[in-house]
Write a structure and sequence with these properties.
The chain contains 3 helices and 15 strands. Strand 9 and strand 10 form a beta hairpin. Helices cover about 10% and strands about 30% of the residues. By secondary structure, the protein is mainly beta. The N and C termini lie far apart (about 70 Å). The radius of gyration is 27 Å and the shape is globular. The longest helix has 11 residues. Strands 1, 2, 4, 5, 7, 12 and 15 form a 7-stranded antiparallel sheet that branches. Strands 3, 6, 8, 11, 13 and 14 form a 6-stranded antiparallel sheet that branches.
């Protein structure tokens, strides 16, 4: 027998080892990359302009695009407010939808971002399990020179303030009907009760003067992580705290600028 034949015979007696299992695909890493919204890609030909319905996965309510350097606004704003746009050319201009509203300017995950068809969600399911975000920070300042005691309040919500009331069957598809918030409070107490729904709260006071934009770093300033959010509300107001009555104790709305909003989508 030739040596090569002997080696072949030995090889046939050695049990073949199974191939190593292929590694299972690793799950995708969590989305931890911050996204900075500068709003500079949105047109504001007159100096002010509307936001699109959804901007970078967020819906904004009672905000406007604001270009403080627009010549159309030269005689309407102070040069001290040109710094509203931290990253030129645009910022956001925010306020309550109307004086006395219990809700300030808001931004958050829009309803319907996740398909609410019955094949994807069970009947009566609330939409609070849709995509959320972490609020990392932003730049903010009150417009012009606010009165003494001007305050900016930031409220974070980890659940919808609209509850799913029922599922209606229409044409073979389910339609979600939401119970809306009241449009206007009848008392200071109602506004405070509205604020109590917030999961996270932080505020800052401003003196009577023109201000540089304040760089708010949420976790550092509030000592809490603002994660799992569905909606963020910002209110700027002034006046005296206390019971509303006979013109006493009211806090009135004040406009503010917001720019370079940093979030992490989850």
């Amino acid at each position: 027998m030739k040596p090569q034949d002997l080696l072949a015979a030995w090889a046939s007696l050695i049990p073949s080892s199974p191939p190593p299992p292929s590694p299972s695909p690793s799950p995708p890493p969590p989305a931890t990359t911050p996204t900075t919204l500068t709003f500079d890609d949105l047109p504001a030909p007159s100096g002010l302009g509307p936001l699109p319905k959804t901007y970078h996965n967020l819906t904004f309510s009672t905000y406007s695009i604001f270009n403080p350097h627009s010549p159309n606004l030269a005689h309407l704003i102070s040069p001290q407010d040109y710094n509203c746009a931290v990253s030129p050319s645009n910022a956001l201009l925010g306020s309550r939808p109307f004086e006395g509203s219990p809700v300030g300017a808001t931004f958050g995950i829009p309803h319907g971002l996740k398909d609410s068809d019955s094949s994807r969600s069970g009947g009566g399911e609330d939409l609070e399990d849709v995509a959320s975000f972490t609020l990392c920070g932003f730049w903010i300042k009150p417009l012009i020179s606010p009165p003494p005691g001007a305050r900016i309040t930031v409220l974070g919500y980890r659940r919808r303030r609209r509850r799913v009331q029922q599922q209606q069957q229409q044409g073979g598809r389910h339609k979600t009907v939401f119970e809306q918030l009241p449009s206007k409070p009848s008392s200071r107490q109602e506004e405070e009760e509205e604020q109590e729904q917030a999961d996270l709260k932080w505020h800052v006071y401003f003196t009577h003067d023109y201000h540089l934009p304040l760089h708010v770093r949420m976790e550092e300033f509030s000592r809490e992580k603002w994660d799992g959010l569905i909606e963020v509300e910002i209110r700027a107001d002034f006046g005296e705290d206390g019971d509303v009555g006979e013109g006493k104790g009211e806090r009135l709305d004040w406009e503010f600028c917001l720019d370079d909003l940093v979030v992490i989508f989850e």
